[in-house]
Specification:
By secondary structure, the protein is of the alpha+beta class. The protein is built from 6 helices and 5 strands. Strands 1-2-3-5-4 form a 5-stranded mixed sheet, covered by helices on one side.
């Protein structure tokens, strides 16, 4: 009888211990899921905050650029027109000096063209009206007018397959990349390609400039521009990649990711 009691006590104790272990496992499992859920919610809240902050920054930046574009169009444009009229009057009053005014007229015409193109690419209303593909065409014309490098670009017809906010973000990233190429690449050629077939979107910019060690630049303080581009692309729901090496130029790609079923998401 005593042996049965001992066995019963051992079995009961074992079952109790197993039950406690099971309860602990369940508690840890539930708390782990809750912790993961909380971390995901915090990450989503952080991303949402960053997206809203970036949206505010973009709105402020676009407002300032639109005002600047309007200032160029209204005031500086009028001054250039007045200068052109003045030159024409001087040529009428002094026909013998007409040939000497020709270089000034040429320079004045080039300045007017540069400012007109710049005004358009700074104005988000203009970009929204003509769309991303038209805005890139205008920017390509401005880059070619600068004659800093050869721009290789075939105009793309149709739609970009991006939302309006995405188009504006892509265009501003495009402008930042081309300005970086102008300032730092020492390139002779800039190749621009856009693929919008089958509802997709992919933008590629490649130059034959001096290039850089991507890992070193990414880890340095000089990489704020690259990180800003990557962050803007992420907030716009786009994938971006940058590849470069010394002496082999740089290539940047911006792509709308595909969904699991193979279709594209906006």
């Amino acid at each position: 009888m005593v042996d049965k009691d001992i066995i019963f006590a051992i079995v009961s104790s074992t079952l109790l211990i197993l039950l406690l272990i099971a309860i602990l496992v369940i508690v840890f499992f539930i708390s782990g899921k809750q912790r993961i859920k909380q971390e995901m919610e915090m990450a989503e809240a952080k991303l949402s905050f960053e997206r809203e902050l970036r949206q505010v920054e973009t709105e402020v930046s676009e407002h300032v650029m639109s005002q600047f574009a309007q200032e160029i169009h209204d005031n500086i444009g009028q001054l250039l027109t007045a200068m052109h009229i003045q030159i024409q009057n001087q040529k009428l009053d002094h026909p013998q000096l007409a040939e000497e005014f020709r270089p000034t007229e040429i320079y004045l015409g080039e300045v007017s063209q540069h400012l007109r193109l710049l005004s358009r690419t700074l104005n988000n209303d203009y970009i929204g009206h003509i769309g991303l593909l038209g805005a890139i065409q205008t920017e390509v014309e401005r880059l070619r007018a600068l004659k800093r490098f050869e721009v290789h670009w075939l105009p793309v017809k149709g739609k970009s397959n991006l939302g309006k906010d995405q188009e504006l973000m892509v265009f501003r990233i495009f402008q930042e990349l081309t300005q970086n190429a102008l300032r730092h690449s020492a390139a002779k050629n800039l190749y621009i390609e856009i693929d919008t077939k089958n509802g997709q979107f992919e933008l590629s910019l490649r130059d034959d400039g001096c290039g850089f060690v991507h890992e070193q630049v990414q880890a340095s303080r000089k990489a704020s521009g690259l990180r800003n581009i990557a962050k803007r692309a992420q907030l716009a729901g786009l994938e971006c990649s940058i590849s470069s090496s010394p002496g082999k130029g740089c290539e940047f790609k911006l792509k709308k990711p595909a969904t699991h079923n193979g279709s594209q998401k906006q």
